[in-house]
Amino acid sequence: MLISVGLCFASATRAASPIPKKIENPPSLPIVPASFESLLVIDDASGVTLYERNATSIHSGASLTKLMTARVFTSTPTNWEANGSILKSDEVGGGRLRVSSGSVMTLRDVLYSAIIGSANNAAMAMARMFDGKGMPAFIARMNATAKTLGLAQASYVEPSGMDAKNLISARDIATLINADSKDPEISRAMTSPTYSFVVKKPKLAKTIKNTNELLFTAPDVTVHAGKTGYIEESMYNFATRISPKGDPSKTVTVVVFGAPSRLESMTAAHQLANWAWSAYDWTASAGSAPTLARDLGVGDRGADVTALQKFLNTHEAVIAKSGPGSPGKETSLFGEMTRIALAKYQEAHRAEILTPHGAKTGYGYLDAVTRAYIQADAVGGMLAKK
């Protein structure tokens, strides 16, 4: 049963966005869903799921694991021009940055090599260099970050993706790639077709090409984020955020797990996005969503955080009885009290929020599933029909 929102979000930072509504007689899916293990398409602005197949099934993350590795590595203030290195101990097989052991380069070059070129040795180097506490501490941080983001199926045992015991679902990957998109360095890496740099020692010029072929072969779309992955246990995986060229209001997140080939993983994502743009109506007549147009977590700021706090305070998830965050004194900072209140709200609507995300307890992160549920009733319960 949908709740009544009874709250105006007009003060949020972006104008209200349409909620996509499925048209009458939509086109057929352009792919055979059974050819893939998991599929997911989400409208970024509203959080509405436009298509899903086994979205909470658990798979080996392969190199999609690097999305979490990068998030942890960039989670503290970093001098990106500081020196990093690739050592023999970082070599774990698979795709690698072809440099000799002991090579010195900037930390940005290491990060970009892991994301753009999906270099396993660069991912291992990031974990080794992070805060000086060693690999076990880095892996613990990966799993703690997964919990913070509400990644219900995610668990990590190493940072490169080579180990099949790195586990995650398509739903979790969608949340993670959107979180990574907020970071300027990760975002630039995910959207750079190529990247050139000079290894400082021994001096060597390198140019790496992005493994995301949509950056080269899909002129009809704008790629806002993307990451490829392969391991035999999960086959070819791909996650991306794309919009029609020149129309970012229709940005969608697409996740594909278990494609037969790398090309088919990216082709399927491209086709699913095009299908969504033709199968759903994004115009104002489809209903306007209150503006919770991005995922939110602890540390985020903005008018949308204020709007979220106002909503929670009027829907039996009061942030504070007095002081900052209390009714009438909402703030623009998403802090720990907001997280606790949001987790309480999620648990009060377990069937609508937690179950579709594969979660058992509230996690206090405003992801797509939570945003879609909050916003749907504000326009008369116009949640997009599956």
What strand line-up does the widest sheet have? Answer: 4-3-13-12-11
Which structural class best describes the helix and strand composition?
alpha+beta
**CATH-defined architecture of the largest domain:** 3-Layer(aba) Sandwich
What is the N-to-C succession of helices and strands? Answer: EEEEEHEEHHHEHHEEHEEEHEEHHHH
How many alpha or pi helices? 12
Gross geometry: globular
Question: Which regions are unreliable across 5 or more consecutive residues at pLDDT < 50?
Answer: 1-15, 381-386
* Radius of gyration, whole Å: 21 Å
What are the main properties of this structure?
386 residues, two-stranded antiparallel ribbon, Muramoyl-pentapeptide Carboxypeptidase, domain 1, alpha+beta, Beta-lactamase
Task: Describe this protein's structure.
Helix 1 (66-73) packs across helix 4 (135-148), helix 1 packs parallel to helix 5 and helix 2 packs across helix 3 (120-129). This protein has 386 residues and is an alpha+beta fold. The radius of gyration is 21 Å and the shape is globular. It has helices spanning 66-73, 107-116, 120-129, 135-148, 170-181, 184-191, 214-217, 262-279, 303-313, 336-348, 350-357, 368-376; strands at 17-18, 21-22, 38-43, 49-53, 59-60, 83-86, 103-106, 167-168, 194-200, 203-209, 221-231, 235-244, 252-259, 280-281, 288-289. The protein folds into three domains: 26-57 and 219-281; 59-169 and 178-209, DD-peptidase/beta-lactamase superfamily (Beta-lactamase, 3-Layer(aba) Sandwich); 291-379, PGBD-like superfamily/PGBD (Muramoyl-pentapeptide Carboxypeptidase, domain 1). A hairpin with a 7-residue loop joins strand 12 (235-244) and strand 13 (252-259). A five-stranded antiparallel beta sheet has the order 4-3-13-12-11, sandwiched between helices.
